[in-house]
Design goal:
By secondary structure, the protein is an alpha+beta fold. Helices cover about 50% and strands about 20% of the residues. It contains 11 helices and 14 strands. Helix 1 (about 10-20) runs parallel beside helix 4. The chain starts with 7 loop residues before the first helix and ends with a strand.
Length: about 475
């Protein structure tokens, strides 16, 4: 016998339920179709485990008071997904056995459609997280700084997880963890700098390499930071590679937000693992690049010392010899003297350059010579050209720290005045530890000259600042 065709309303409802692969839309079709085929004024689907799919109860309207209820289970792959409840049959009569049968048929078809929608949604989520992970890896390995790399991880993870914030924490020397970067929809404000104190239960898990999943950050007793009240569900995922903990990726959702599903937790954990590897690789690449820069700077410094300085020194010796052989030619004698002075000055500047090349560029200098060069480089960025710097005598070994600090203050003040003047095209700085005070005591002197206009002495007289202190 031929199978009896489905009633038209039921057929339409079945088609509607299976017509979309989005889970939320599928459930909306289910609830609406159930109300239509049974003539109910109220229909609702209550999920058994709302956290699994991140969905809450779906319903058409508030149930009428005192109305009879029809209730059937919805199973997905043999597991109870939820219960479909109907109330308030139109016309005021009770639900019939036929209504219940139609609803059960719809529930069976809905279970199949929900299973398909789950598979589709899981595949879409995996695709998005894989693409996001690849984008992060590519960004980290194409030249971003360490801070930018952490920001990239936090921002991408926030978008993928549909979180209110993406936060990176790193271990502190005291044994706690501190938020070092945060990505939010608005200004992160006081989030950056927030710390988790040593000994916190959450911290114990994270330092042990275990992820932490939180239902509500505002009420969970394990959360102790002052910003916890802003957030609800959260994931805190360790960033570790090769057994080494780099930091933690935290992805809190807004207060009252939907909980994370098991699939989201798995994908976020895999993302964190991949991001940690990419961070380590990026750090290794940056270290290699810095090493290459150091080696190149060292080579240039050796070349300058071995070739340029020696040739300049030999030329100066030749000029001095010529000067001694021409005592009766005042003009020639004076010209040769100026040439020797210029060469000596050039030798000093080249040696200063050699010293600067030998300093690690990312480290703060500890010597007076290095600190003077750092102040000069700062001024150069505003002047648009590099001032000339010359050191005379054992600058680093003879000047005590209090005197060095005062010298740097004087230099900073002089350079600050220079950058505010117009038409400056030349700045000469000299630090000399071979000078003496009027009473004969040894001293260190600072001279700063610029060719900018000095109103009291003419339009191009230039300005010279002198500072001196005993050693």
């Amino acid at each position: 016998m031929a199978a009896e065709p489905l009633p038209s309303p039921l057929l339409d409802a079945v088609i509607g339920v299976g017509a979309d692969l989005d889970l939320g839309t599928t459930l909306q079709h289910l609830v609406a179709g159930a109300a239509e085929v049974t003539g109910a004024r109220y229909a609702a689907l209550a999920m058994t485990d709302p956290a699994r799919d991140g969905l809450r109860e779906i319903r058409t309207a508030e149930p009428p008071a005192g109305a009879g209820t029809l209730d059937v289970p919805v199973h997905v792959e043999g597991e109870l997904f939820g219960r479909l409840r109907l109330s308030g049959k139109q016309g005021g009569g009770p639900f019939t056995a036929g209504d219940e049968e139609l609803l059960r048929l719809l529930a069976v078809q809905a279970g199949i459609a929900i299973g398909n929608a789950r598979l589709y949604e899981a595949a879409r989520q995996r695709e998005r997280w894989i693409e996001g992970s690849a984008a992060v890896t590519n960004a980290l390995l194409t030249g971003e700084s360490a801070d930018d790399a952490l920001t990239t991880v936090a921002e991408r993870a926030r978008l993928l997880a549909d979180a209110a914030a993406g936060v990176i924490l790193q271990p502190t020397e005291e044994g706690g963890m501190e938020i070092v970067t945060a990505s939010t929809r608005a200004d992160p404000g006081d989030i950056v700098g927030t710390t988790i104190a040593p000994g916190s239960p959450v911290l114990v898990q994270l330092l042990g390499g275990e992820p932490v999943y939180i239902d509500d950050s505002a009420t969970d007793p394990r959360m102790t930071t002052h910003v916890r009240h802003r957030f609800g569900p959260s994931m805190m995922l360790p960033l570790q590679s090769g057994g080494r903990l780099i930091g933690t990726l935290a992805l809190p959702r807004r207060r009252g937000g939907r909980p994370y599903t098991d699939v989201e937790k798995l994908l976020a954990t895999q993302f964190a693992s991949q991001a940690a590897v990419a961070l380590v690789l990026a750090d290794t690449r940056h270290r290699r690049e810095r090493l290459a820069v150091y080696e190149d700077r060292d080579r240039i410094a050796r070349d300058l010392h071995d070739l340029v300085v020696q040739r300049l020194f030999a030329t100066a010796m030749m000029l001095e010899s010529t000067q001694r052989r021409a005592p009766d030619e005042p003009d020639v004698h004076a010209t040769l003297g100026r040439a020797v002075d210029e060469l000596q000055s050039t030798i000093q500047e080249v040696r200063t350059t050699i010293y600067a090349l030998q300093q690690p560029p990312t480290e703060a200098p500890a010597t007076l010579r290095g600190r003077v060069l750092r102040e000069t480089a700062t001024a150069a960025a505003r002047l648009g050209f590099q001032p000339s710097v010359r050191f005379t005598g054992p600058v680093d070994s003879r000047v005590p720290e209090p005197t060095a600090a005062r010298l740097l203050t004087a230099l900073r003040g002089a350079l600050g005045a220079i950058v505010r003047r117009r038409s400056v095209t030349r700045v000469d700085i000299g630090v000399d530890t071979t000078t003496r005070l009027p009473d004969g005591r040894s001293s260190v002197s600072l001279t700063v000259y610029d060719d900018g206009p000095a109103p009291a002495r003419g339009p191009r007289a230039g300005t010279t600042v002198r500072w001196q202190a005993p050693l």
